[in-house]
Amino acid sequence: xxxxxxxxxxxxxxxxxxxITMPFFKLALLAERxxxxxxxxxxxxxxxxxxxxxxxxxxxxxxxxxIDIGGNVGDYTAEIRRRNPNAEIHIFEPSATNIQKLxxxxxKETNIKILPYAVSNDAGxxxxxxxxPGSGLGSLTQxxxxxxxxxxxxxxSVNTIRFExxxxxxxxxxxxxxxxxxxxxxxxxxxKGFGKAIRSTKLIQFEFGGCNIDTRTFxxxxxxxxxxxxxxxxxxxxxxxxxxxxxxxxxEYFSTTNYIAVxxxxx
Length: 267
Known about the structure:
By secondary structure, the protein is of the alpha/beta class. The chain is built from eight helices and eleven strands. It has helices at 6-38, 48-59, 75-83, 96-106, 163-170, 187-192, 211-215, 219-228, and strands spanning 65-69, 88-92, 112-115, 118-120, 124-130, 154-162, 176-181, 201-208, 231-237, 240-243, 257-263. The strands form two sheets. It has an eight-stranded mixed β-sheet with strand order 3-2-1-7-8-11-9-10, with helices on both faces. A three-stranded mixed β-sheet has the order 4-6-5. The chain is globular, with a radius of gyration of 23 Å.
């Protein structure tokens, strides 16, 4: 007697297919992640020294005036200062916990200014959200991170500032060598608050990643913003700076990635 059970046969076929394809799927996923990482996508864990090496190569000079927006505890500022102890650096950091740490670290240095503000497109006040006081994840948006088991319920009232206003009143419209922006998804708003100051800025390093999911901003927004201002765009990779000459949808990679914009109008 011939045994016929099409459901049983289908189940066996599906199970066999799953057994065979799962290792290949995992290998393909791993290859995809490695390929992205080698392109600099998700290479946000690069050392600050590595980032500065690439920045200085594109800048082609030692910076004398630098702006650190989202200074956290000052590691980026410390690296700039290490390369040029005489550099003038202005750090913007809204977290009260981190402001205290910055004052302890740089408070006696006359060429480093610590500003207790969140840089945005408007001057006023806002709420800084985080998982804990002083967290590097702190953002002006209450991020949804339950899928990472991160409770984002700490709140702190902060003051906001437009950089163009500060540039006029405190920097007298001077040319700026480097601006670093790492403010967890609000980089584009900060850039829109630069106004005319952006035309006097030679190089801008900014971060893009998972935070931009929460703030609903895309790399396309940055691409057109800088294109209209005649900036070249680069991605920081393990091998140096990769020029991004055209926009593609594959650039929308929401894992921490650092970019550099270079002003072609300034020497």
